[in-house]
Structure formats: structure tokens, C-alpha cells
Amino acid sequence: MKITLFSFGFKHGYPEADVVWDVRFLPNPYWVAELRSDTGLETEVAGYVLANEPGERFLELLEPLLAFTLAEHAARGRESLTLAMGCTGGKHRSVALVEHLRLLLTATGYCLEVYHRDIDKE
Fold first, then answer.
1. Phi, psi of 106 (to 5 degrees)
2. % helix, strand, coil for the chain, step of 5
């Protein structure tokens, strides 16, 4: 099964995807002056988003749910699935999470495509 991981910003429009997670509840690096111009591709930004109680708890819940969901879709012959993560602007939180999932799913052998639709937008 081919999986497409997609980060986006809600302020730039809702994407077409099979599953969409709204991650605007996570800490927002936009409000930290030294992180604002960086993206979720940078280690410091990803750490700010994920290395805290809500980020760690979300991953703790998301990872087994994602494994279950993907296995069930694959068992039913689904050929592709698009998973989207959205934050406000699509530059920090959603990107960090998609990159985390990229590493997780690549390690488990899934065929992936990754897009960061709004990473360069203001």
C-alpha cells in the first residue's frame, strides 16, 4: 500500500485526504522568536513541538492507532491512503509530525510519498 503523508496549514485551505489530523493543540514555535523563521524540518522546531507532555502523549496514542489503521486498510486491499496533518500555517507543527511519521513508517517498510504543501508560505 502506498501512503502519502501531507502537511498543510488550515489558513491556506483544507486538503483532500483520507484522514486529517488537526494538530493546532500542540505548542506553536511561531510564538518563539528564534524558531519562527525555521520549519518543522529543523531539529529544534521538531523538539519544541514533540518533546513535551502533549506532543509525547499524542505520539503515544497516534502511533498504535496509525499502525492499526494502516494494517486494516492493507488487509482489505486498499492500494493507497493519504494522511494529512494540519496546523495553522503548515510550516512548523504539521511538518514536524509528518517527518516523525516518515521515519516511523519508513522503518516499517511502507512505500511513502511526503509533501509539505505550505512550508514556504507566510
1. -65, -40
2. 45, 20, 35
